[in-house]
């Protein structure tokens, strides 16, 4: 969808992303890099219908002459509708010559994550005046081994029902007041049929492959 907006506000976010200063090797740094402004120049210039019509005349004249005007532009990926459940899939492989190699680097991720610096200022499903979009971690999938063989295990939090989240999913309603604390519960490590209670610190130190967050609102 292409829309025409004020250039001064088109790239504004719900919370100031420049105050973040994200730590390299963290999920915040990944999100920051993914949502950075990208300049489209030279061979990446954008085809501009307005510029083309201004230069060559009406569109119906273009079909026969196949003339277009390309212009420099800026591109940015931002979130316009924060989901009730937020899932991150971390790329755990890299190209090494003709082979794929697993990336074992630890990526830091928080118990409570604020998505607001990566959301558009006109974000939907956010209460008026709110500048935070908070999520609580409830699940992690971890992979041990190599690209050829390995084992998947999971961390899951047994927690009480999140009624605010239920209202959002079932009725599309969101409260004006934000919950800022993570959903209370007990973490468990699941490996095949073996289940063991673990601490939150153990979970946050895991080598995450998949991360699952629920909206705190």
UniProtKB/TrEMBL annotation:
One Gene Ontology term of the molecular function aspect = cysteine-type deubiquitinase activity
Q: Which InterPro entries match?
A: Papain-like_cys_pep_sf, Peptidase_C19, Peptidase_C19_UCH, USP, USP_CS
Q: Which PROSITE patterns match?
A: USP_2 (PS00973), USP_3 (PS50235)
Listed A to Z, the keywords are: Hydrolase
Give the record's GO CC terms: cytosol; nucleus
- Residue span, USP domain: 1-216
Q: Which CDD domains match?
A: Peptidase_C19K
Hydrolase recorded as keyword: yes
Does Hydrolase show up as a keyword for this record?
Answer: yes
Q: Please, which domain of life does this record's source organism belong to?
A: Eukaryota
Listed GO biological process terms: protein deubiquitination
- This chain's protein is named UBP16 hydrolase
State the organism named in the record.
Chloroceryle aenea (American pygmy kingfisher)
């Amino acid at each position: 969808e292409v829309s025409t907006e004020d250039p001064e506000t088109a790239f504004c976010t719900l919370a100031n992303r420049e105050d973040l200063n994200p730590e390299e090797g963290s999920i915040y740094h990944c999100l920051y890099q993914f949502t950075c402004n990208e300049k489209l120049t030279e061979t990446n210039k954008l085809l501009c219908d307005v510029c083309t019509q201004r230069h060559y005349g009406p569109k119906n004249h273009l079909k026969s002459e196949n003339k277009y005007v390309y212009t420099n532009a800026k591109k940015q990926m931002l979130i316009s509708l924060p989901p009730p459940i937020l899932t991150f899939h971390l790329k755990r492989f890299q190209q090494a010559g003709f082979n794929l190699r697993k990336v074992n680097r630890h990526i830091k991720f928080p118990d409570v994550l604020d998505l607001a610096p990566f959301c558009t200022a006109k974000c939907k499903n956010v209460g008026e005046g709110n500048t935070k979009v908070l999520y609580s971690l409830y699940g992690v999938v971890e992979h041990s081994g190599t690209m050829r063989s390995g084992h998947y295990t999971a961390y899951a939090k047994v927690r009480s029902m999140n009624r605010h989240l239920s209202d959002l999913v079932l009725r599309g309603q969101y409260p004006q007041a934000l919950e800022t604390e993570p959903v209370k519960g007990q973490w468990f490590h699941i490996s095949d049929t073996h289940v063991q209670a673990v601490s939150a610190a153990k979970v946050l130190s895991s080598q995450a492959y998949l991360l699952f967050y629920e909206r705190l609102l």
